[in-house]
Amino acid sequence: MSWGTELWDQYDQLHVHTQKGIEFLEKYGHFVDARTKIEQEYASKLRRLARNYLPKKKEEDDYQFTATKAFKLMLNEINDLAGQHEVIAENLSTAVVSDLTTLVKSMKDDRRKFLQEGARLQAQLTLSLTTLAKTKEKYEKAFGASERAQDAYNKADADLNLSRADVEKQRMTSNIKRQQMDDSKNEYANQLQKTNELQKLYYTKLMPAVFQSLQDMDEKRVKCIQNFMRKSAQTEQDVLPIIAQCLEGIQRCTDAMDEKEDSLLVIEKYKSGFLPPGDIPFEDLSTVESGSVSSSTTTPQNTPSEKKTSILGTITGGKIKKRSGLLGIFGQNKNLSGIALQEDDFSELPPNQRRKKLQSKLDELTAKISQETGARDGLMKMKTVYEANPALGDPMSIQGQLTENGQRLDKLRSDLRRYQAWLEEAEGSPASTLSSRTNGAGCS
Fold first, then answer.
1. Tens-place pLDDT, residues 162-182
2. What is the dihedral of CA 106, 107, 108, 110, to 10 degrees?
3. Which residue, 428, 377, 432, is CA-closest to 402?
4. Strand (E) or helix (H) holding 79
5. Do 263 and 66 meet the contact criterion of CB atoms below 8 Å apart?
6. Contact yes or no for 317/346 (Cβ under 8 A)
7. Which segments within 172-285 are labelled E, that is strand?
8. What average pLDDT does the segment 68-72 reach?
9. Which of 87, 270, 302, 434 has its CA 20 to 30 A from that of 224?
10. pLDDT of residue 38
């Protein structure tokens, strides 16, 4: 179906329809642009959310449980998910919004050009019709004048009272009017032929061509909207596999959570190593009041003290040091601000936690000794090379570094022995056994 044949008389309606079509195309472009901004904003806020909930450095100790580890991994997946929404926004912006903007401008220009051509053809036909109306009006006037002149001549010719000259004058006037009428008639006929030819061409070829151009443009507009909608959907479909992977990653995070393992980690983290306090002995106040020496000697005098120490050592974490082998020597040592100093031997911690800290410190020192030993071996090799080939460098330049390395190693080994002794004290094992095991690890 063609607009040129079916809608030949609906130029004004097509003018309005094509205008609304381009306005809708522009509206769809604004919609995609707004959606692009929403995707970008969503991605940005999603990234910010994940970043804000990532554990701080001071909170890292709390993220050793399976639940908190899973949460941290989930935040990483959420961050990747935000990246996919950024991809959607970028692809919509470059592949849809940009092309839509160009298309709207192109169609506005094309429509204006087609409508200008239609207006020109309309003006041309209108001018021809106006000229036809004028020539017809001129012919009608000339025809009337010719008829009146002919009647005047007939009356004069029948009137016997008029002279022959007057009759001849009327005849000449009638002939002139008839000639003018014939000229106007021919002019009208010629203009009518031209107008009919132009009108036929206007309705069969010229305007149908304009309407066809408008129809092609409108169909192109609909087709482009269809393609843009499909492209928008395809843009999202392209990232769905990656989004699915992110969601699967979150599922795997939940699968890794284990409430029983977390319970064991709580025990591992907070177990003090103390035994529960024993029964509190009965104090017979009546025997104390009687002042009987034999009675007082049968009751141990250190029981209240031991009870107090046991209770405080178990319940109050800050006073645990009273139970250590150092007998609380540094228990009252405070700095100027009134805050207790933390000792290198971690004696302020419960036994179990102290052993863990000491072992961690031993592992750290062993790693540093291994690193410094490796550095010393490298320096020795470099010194050997310099001694063999002095052109490469001065062997004495390495000596200072070797000296510093040796000092660091001595310090580390001294610290290692100190922490080994503290660990042996905490574990209550023979020094020789622990010392030989730790030294072996440090030299390896």
1. 778 888 888 898 899 899 999
2. 90
3. 377
4. helix 66-92
5. no
6. no
7. none
8. 89
9. 87
10. 95
